[in-house]
Write a structure and sequence with these properties.
Elements lengths: L6 H6 L4 E5 L2 E4 L4 E4 L2 H4 L8 H13 L11 H13 L4 E7 L2 H17 L8 E5 L8 H6 L16 E4 L19 H13 L4 E6 L15 H12 L2 E5 L13 H4 L6 E4 L11 E6 H5 L21 H16 L2 H20 L4 E7 L2 E6 L15 H11 L2 E2 L1 E2 L3 E4 L7 H20 L1
Parallel strand pairs: 3-13, 5-6, 5-7, 7-8, 8-9
Antiparallel strand pairs: 1-2, 2-3, 4-10, 9-10, 11-12, 12-15, 14-15
Helix pairs in contact: 3-11, 4-11, 7-8, 12-14, 13-14
The structure holds pyridoxal-5'-phosphate.
Length: 434
């Protein structure tokens, strides 16, 4: 079974990939596909990167697994040092895991344990946002705010509260930016007060949300949430599983939005997909709560067999070295500009309601009427039709009934980006002519 796909549909015309290089996949029939989505927001340094591959080969010759209860290993040590160096502020303590769901789940567990060990044992609730996606395991799914992904498993866990995300294009409060007082942020303060500040442990969110169409906050939003969390001793957790490692034009979206969280979750782009790896980093005041004598039992009560796996860490180190040496965050900023410029022409087709995102994480919301923001009828599914046409033409994008997202590898060339936008533009034109 593929992820979140109806297999009856997939097996009718399955895409089976045989190899990949740079931003290109090739399927078993020799057809080439431009990877406009970095796999799924993962392959930052592109496919078939020789440096990452060689680093993994070399590591295999040294050691492929070390005993997680007894020891660490050299690539794991080098990786956590490198992460502490590139992460903003005092996000200096790192825990390594294998998947994004493990990282967000661990971050929420860390928030609860932190408060237990710092004199606030009754703080347990986690606030998150509608449309947010934090993973497939039960805790991560409980924080997730996309009902389509969870209704079949409900009830999910208790102690999770959802708030509306920042959607200026369609403000649920009927307000307009910038005169709105950033109500989508101040409502979090109201929520904390209504829930009882003594019960709220953490606020988890993606700085830019994928589900909902690259939900991008106004610049004041995250700094304001930072101040609200400080006021109520609520840990601010950034899920940077998509936005980390250069995607938004800085190494982390925390830097793009100039806001330091207490815990930051990483995954996907950390190895560019060459091996499973994820991590969380926490600030010094959080880490201090877990440092003590053996008999105090204050160590973080979380672990996974493959956390700190040497092979994954070797891949992560090599991928991060590529991102830094080739200054891929700058590339994301520059090419993001080129992408936005190409979207101007698409706007002339009269169906682009809003363009959102930063760097090479850009989303387009389709509307029937750009003046009134009226949506297409539910059965029109323009985004799906555009995405499927693009796929048939050899371009992989993230698509939904009402929006499309672009997130190519940060090593994409200007010419390849132009080609991606040519195919996209043609696909919109054809879908509208259907
Ligand atoms: C923002 C975000 N958080 C968490 C996850 C979960 O990561 P994983 O699928 O590696 O468990 C994802 C996966 O798509 C994600 O996009």
């Amino acid at each position: 079974m593929l992820d979140l796909r109806q297999m009856k549909t997939f097996v009718a015309d399955p895409l089976v990939i045989a190899r990949a290089d740079g931003v290109w996949y090739e399927d078993v029939h020799g057809k080439r596909y431009l990877d406009g989505l970095s796999g799924i927001f993962v392959v930052t340094v592109g496919h078939n990167n020789r440096r990452v591959i060689e680093a993994m080969r070399d590591q295999l010759d040294q050691v492929a697994f070390t005993p997680p209860l007894h020891a660490t290993n050299l690539p794991a040590l080098q990786l956590v040092e490198k992460l502490a160096e590139i992460l903003p502020g005092d996000l200096n303590t790192v825990k390594l895991m294998s998947s994004g769901s493990e990282a967000t789940e661990a971050a929420m567990k860390m928030a609860r344990q932190y408060h237990r060990q710092t004199g606030h044992p009754q703080k347990y609730k986690i606030i998150s946002r509608y449309w947010g996606y934090h993973g497939a395991t039960f805790g991560a799914l409980s924080a997730t705010g996309t009902v389509r992904r969870k209704w079949m498993f409900e009830p999910t866990l208790q102690g999770f509260v959802h708030v509306w995300p920042p959607t200026c294009y369609r403000c649920p409060f009927g307000l307009s930016y910038p005169g709105c007082g950033i109500r989508c942020a101040t409502i979090v303060e109201d929520t904390i007060q209504l829930e009882g500040p003594e019960t709220v442990a953490g606020l988890i969110l993606e700085p830019i949300g994928n589900t909902g169409g690259i939900v991008t906050p106004p610049p004041e939003y995250l700094p304001l949430l930072r101040r609200i969390c400080d006021r109520y001793n609520v840990l601010l957790i950034f899920d940077e599983i998509i936005t980390g490692f250069g995607r938004t034009g800085q190494m982390f979206a925390a830097q793009t939005f100039d806001t330091l969280p207490d815990i930051l979750c990483m995954g996907k782009g950390i190895t560019s997909g060459y091996a499973p790896l994820a991590a969380l980093a926490c600030r010094d005041h959080v880490a201090a709560a877990f440092w003590g004598e053996e008999e105090d039992q204050v160590e973080f009560a979380d672990g996974h067999t493959y956390g700190g796996n040497p092979l994954s860490c070797a891949a992560g180190l090599a991928s991060i070295a590529e991102i830094i040496e080739r200054d891929l965050p700058r590339r994301a900023r520059e090419l993001g500009g080129q992408l936005l410029h190409r979207l101007e022409a698409v706007q002339e087709l009269g169906v682009v309601g809003e363009i959102r995102g930063r760097g090479l994480l850009i989303g387009v919301e389709f509307v029937r009427d750009t003046r009134t923001k009226e949506r297409f009828p539910a059965d029109a599914k323009l985004g799906l039709r555009v995405g499927r046409r693009a796929l048939a033409k050899g371009l992989i994008l993230r698509f939904d009934p009402d929006w499309i997202a672009f997130a190519p590898p940060l090593v994409i060339s200007e010419a390849e980006l132009d080609l991606m936008m040519d195919i996209f533009t043609e696909s919109v034109q054809e879908a509208l002519a259907e």
